[in-house]
Amino acid sequence: MLITVLKKYKITPQKSLGQNFLNNPEAVNKLIAFIDPSDKDVFIEIGSGLGTLTFPLARKVKKVFAFETDSRLIKVSEELKQDLKNIEFINQDILGLDLEEFIAGHLQPGEKARVAGNLPYYISTLILFQLLKIKSYVKDITVMLQKELAMRIVANPNTRDYGSLTVFFQVFTDIKIGFEVRRDSFYPEPEVDSIIIKIIPLSKPRIDLSDYDLFLKLVKTSFAHRRKTLKNNLKNLDEIKKDPQLIHSLFSSSGIDPGARAEALSIFEFKKLYDALMEIR
Predict the structure, then answer these.
(1) For 213-249, how does the pLDDT look when each residue is reduced to its tens digit (9 = 90+)?
(2) Domain range holding 247?
């Protein structure tokens, strides 16, 4: 069906846009079941493509705002949607949008958006960070990610995949793992398999943070060079560069081993480093 539509409208998938279209009806049905939509839901779909998810989702929910950067696909989707009047296609890059302003202007007061989409690998992380900045407006985020990225998000300490992204999501969200989607479920076929996950923003972070940006900087700097110790990485923090002697205070106050590597620390141990950094500032 999908390939027939592409040929009919003479559309060639663009690699530069990360276009790999889901072409597996069974996977779509499983995805809808995992999302578990209701008729009161308002969805933001990221990368609607040719409506593979958009149309079945719209039949079950109140409204779908479908973002798609490729105007060719929107034109075709407008023709294919038939009697579905609760879909609004928007030809815009989600990263170039003030999402908070958009939600405030399109949702009722107190209403939360649900998010779904098949995210292009090269901008997946940027999109997820953007969404979590407005987590108070978002009920959940169900996305299809390339397997490598999904494994990083759900990793445990002392594993190869554990990193700053893992810490960030563990602090601010719950994660539900859905199911794997094989690469041959897409057209054109990508080089890797994908995994569906559901990200549920917490009403309150697992650790208390008064300066979110400082915590994020601390974690990212800790993982900057994975083979280096925490001490060697954290020497590059701006707060430490101003007074290199403070590195000793940071570790003595936190009780964290300066010779450890970042991948060994839990989110609660990063909190100890953060508290110590707040003190020495």
Answers:
(1) 899 999 999 999 999 999 999 999 998 998 888 999 9
(2) 212-280
Q: Give me the residues paired with residue 66 across strands.
A: 45, 89
Q: Could you give phi then psi for residue 196, rounded to 5 degrees?
A: -90, 130
Q: Is residue 164 located within the same domain as residue 233?
A: no
Q: Please return the burial class of 144, using the count of CB atoms within 10 Å of its CB with bins 0-12, 13-18 and 19+.
A: buried
Q: Are the CB atoms for 250 and 147 separated by under 8 Å?
A: no
What DSSP string describes 140-182? EEEEEEEHHHHHHHT--TTSTT-SHHHHHHHHHEEEEEEEEE-
Instruction: Name the pairing type of β-strands 63-67 and 87-90.
Output: parallel
- Stated as kind and residue range, the H or E segment containing 114 is strand 113-118
Between CA 191 and CA 197, with CA 192 as vertex, the angle to 5 degrees is 145
Confirm whether 177 is domain-assigned.
Answer: yes
Quick one: 31 and 164 in the same domain?
yes
Regarding whether 19 and 153 lie in a shared domain, the answer is yes
For residue 138, give the H/E element and its range.
strand 138-146
The residue to which tokens 């105007």 are assigned: 71
Of 83, 32, 34, 26, which Cα lies nearest the Cα of 54?
32
pTM, to two decimals: 0.92
Q: Which residue has the tokens 């707040």?
A: 278
Burial class (CB in 10 A: 0-12, 13-18, 19+), 78: exposed
Is the domain of 133 the same as that of 243?
A: no
Parallel, antiparallel or unpaired: strands 194-201 and 173-181: antiparallel
Average the pLDDT over 60-82 and give the result: 96
CATH number for position 13? 3.40.50.150
Whether residue 60 is contained in a domain is answered as yes
Give CA separation, 167 vs 36, 38, 70, 213, 217, in Å. Answer: 27, 31, 34, 14, 12
